[in-house]
Design goal:
2 copies of one chain form a homodimer. Chain A is an alpha/beta fold and about 450 residues long. Chain A folds into 2 domains: about 15-85 and about 250-450, Aminopeptidase (3-Layer(aba) Sandwich); about 90-245, Glucose Oxidase, domain 1, CATH 3.50.30.30. Chain A contains 13 helices and 15 strands. Chain A starts with a helix and ends with a helix. The interface between A and B is medium-sized, with 25 and 25 residues.
Chain lengths: ~450, ~450
């Protein structure tokens, strides 16, 4: 009996100590032998921006396919998916015209993704400032023939910047349709950032069915503040807007899937991933090249440390998160069609800043289990396990009862770069990227070992 | 009785709710009305590097004196302190000479602070690589006439980079004396950073009494790796080193002290501060301009929100932390001489990255009290209250039984910039700086309200 009692006491202790040691091994490996940073450099500098349907997106598909194959993943394959091909065309113009002096002033601007263009003749109209979609609906027909300037700000007092983004971004997503239904000619949106600077942020809009489609651009926050002052100072201020973007139908693209076959229950799946497409303005470094490269490192780390998972691990490079989510939807559709059993999916699409925790969506029991692992992560400064949330690409898996998670990096600086020309390789820190990869690998390891 | 019982239950609840509300007010104020970022811009861009004894250090004294006076601090005064004046002179040379081809190769180098110079004739000698002071002591007299190259690395697997720095920096601090005692001619030190790049990091050395003083420089990590390979490949590799730095005695400088007089116990003091001097290579933005500007914001925030403290708050800009600690020592000396009672001192000298917690030194009871406040800070992503430690400038107060604290920002990126030409205004994030100022202000508020 004494031996049995001892064994009972020893088992959990031993397990914990073993997990602690393995997790330290994973972090040490990333901090000394990671390839994430150099792989991200290649993706950003040799391939560059990867808008869905572009040749660069195709290059990224082939690059990551080869990369996972070279690391000894058991299978690497492409999952076909049709994606929208939106093209920007030549540089946009948003020109303020002073009706008294006839002087002009160019705003730092960028067309919103999925927007129609004005074409070469442009749009010239009086500009009306609003701070929300609610205000547009109050103004109604007064907006007919006008350019509507959405100047609602992200709330700087929200510590989680993603929450501030979530409240403000509806202007960018639906502002064009909402203004278009009252006969507005075009829409200008304040860029989605807390910073005051001269960098315009693109991002997708969604045209609502059966509503008029009008062109939309974003302008920098600095210019948004200046424009707002000018509107207050001068009646009937006009803007000339010219954009050449257009949607060119759909083209064939792919999710890239690398598998490490499970040793015990190969028919049960764990997913880890990010999205391979990006906007066309920068290099998609934080959004979401880093997420892709960290996800690949999860597989590479487990393989190279001899930690082959019990369940089958799928590392997925999702296509078309930015302006369609077609890759995420296709993955879920195929999983359902094949009746695959997914235990959990983990996404990284909030930048490659220092990891601070995980948000999740699942049962209370599952979330409590994840939270009980917090002590394993605290030595690595990862402390937040309470937030509810999932990544966009894995969210279509929700109805298949999959536990969904997103890694949460420090959110303070993400919207300095998001969807801009400033989202380049140089603004990703090597060490923070490696800590992120290790944090994801440790979580996948624990889920695989302990179940949910 | 019922009223009394209710009151008993209500008091702690009300206090907690009031503290929560006040702390939110403090964070909101910083995130919307902080002047820390623009003040730091002035300090970095209009004044620049502020080596002790330099005209720029004097400018920084006058600037911060005026700044605190303009904010309505009750008293702002200068505390005289003699500081060493070390000057770099013209650009250093560290030139590798290939004994076979006679080809040369320039290393990215910078003299260490407080080092003597080689003078215009320079030093030419064979270079010997070591990885620690222990190895120097093993080699002993074999180092006579040689240039000793300390190539010990910071341990990348330590999550707290300050801990990795602490282990490696003894080479920089004492390496010259330790090699000098065996007759070495000069010392080269690998820069103190986990990054592999081309930026040399300066920092102070300390010549031990009665030991020979020899010149010392740091080289970039990239060049340290390359030099190490070259030493392995070629026997009797020589280096020509030329430095023009020298110590020019002592000059008068100042700590700058801004006081907000306590409303209840004005003879009891709380200190918050950073150091005003910096190295000469960059702009001293993270080290420690940010710490100074956050500290001033602590006072400004409490004044402008009507949160005048019960105890007297001293905001202190310490002089000469980098190569002498004279300011910190003078402050403690004067406090002792005047018999002043200090309850607590809080320093920020670990950069202006996103705040994650506080280290502290005091009684168990005091530390437990601080830790019990963790829930107030968690909404702001500040979670770490366990580490033991203090800032350098306030550490001389220890023997006066003062509770010592240092704010702990995220430590991952500090040694990308520390003591280099890259520590400029642009690498400080506005929002992270503001969160740091709010975090310090909230802690000072709690200590003042609740005692220790």
């Amino acid at each position: 009996m004494r031996t049995l009692l001892l064994a009972l006491f020893l088992v959990p202790l031993t397990l914990t100590a073993q997990h602690e040691a393995t997790i330290k091994q994973i972090y040490d490996y990333q901090l000394t032998q990671s390839e994430a940073y150099e792989n991200l450099r290649y993706l950003c500098k040799q391939i560059g921006p990867r808008l869905s349907g572009s040749p660069q997106a195709a290059a990224a598909v082939e690059y990551t396919r080869q990369l996972m194959a070279s690391y000894g993943f058991d299978t690497v394959y492409l999952q076909p998916v049709m994606v929208p091909k939106w093209v920007r065309g030549q540089q946009e113009i948003a020109r303020v015209i002073n009706s008294q002096t006839h002087g002009t002033w160019e705003l730092s601007t960028t067309a919103l993704g999925n927007s129609i263009g004005t074409g070469p003749d442009g749009v010239l109209a009086e500009v009306v400032e609003v701070s929300s979609i609610e205000e547009v609906n109050r103004l109604g027909k007064k907006l007919e023939g006008k350019i509507v300037f959405y100047n609602g700000k992200m709330d700087p007092t929200k510590i989680n910047t993603f929450s501030a983004y979530g409240s403000a971004v509806v202007q960018r997503a639906y502002g064009a349709s909402e203004a278009g239904k009252f006969g507005a000619k075009a829409v200008i949106v304040r860029s989605m950032t807390n910073r005051i600077d001269d960098i315009p942020h693109t991002g997708s809009l969604v045209y609502k069915p059966l509503m008029p489609r009008i062109p939309a651009v974003a302008i920098s926050t600095q210019d948004a503040d200046a424009l707002s002052k000018q509107i207050a100072a001068q009646k009937e201020l006009k803007i000339y807007m010219e954009t050449h973007c257009k949607m060119e139908g759909e083209v064939l693209s792919y999710n890239v899937i690398g598998e490490i076959t499970g040793t015990e229950t190969p028919d049960e799946y764990l997913v880890v991933g990010g999205h391979l497409d990006s906007w066309d303005l920068g290099e998609g470094a934080h959004d979401d090249g880093g997420g892709c490269m960290m996800s690949i490192e999860v597989g590479r780390t487990l393989l190279n440390l001899g930690l082959r998972p019990k369940r089958t691990l799928r590392v997925v490079m999702f296509m078309n998160e930015e302006n369609g989510l077609r890759g995420g939807e296709k993955y879920a559709e195929m999983a359902k069609a094949k009746g695959e059993k997914h235990l959990a999916a983990l996404e990284s699409d909030s930048g490659s800043f220092g990891p601070m925790g995980f948000s999740s969506m699942g049962t209370d029991k599952q979330r409590k289990k994840i939270q009980s692992w917090a002590p394993y992560f605290r030595p690595y400064h990862v402390w937040s396990f309470e937030n509810i949330g999932s990544g966009a690409d894995i969210s279509p898996l929700e109805d298949q009862v999959v536990f969904l998670m997103e890694m949460e990096p420090n959110p303070q600086k993400y919207f300095n770069y998001h969807h801009t020309a400033a989202d380049v390789f140089e603004v990703v820190d090597k060490r923070e990227l490696e800590l992120g990869a290790a944090t994801m690998a440790a979580m996948i390891y624990l889920i695989d070992q302990e179940g949910l």
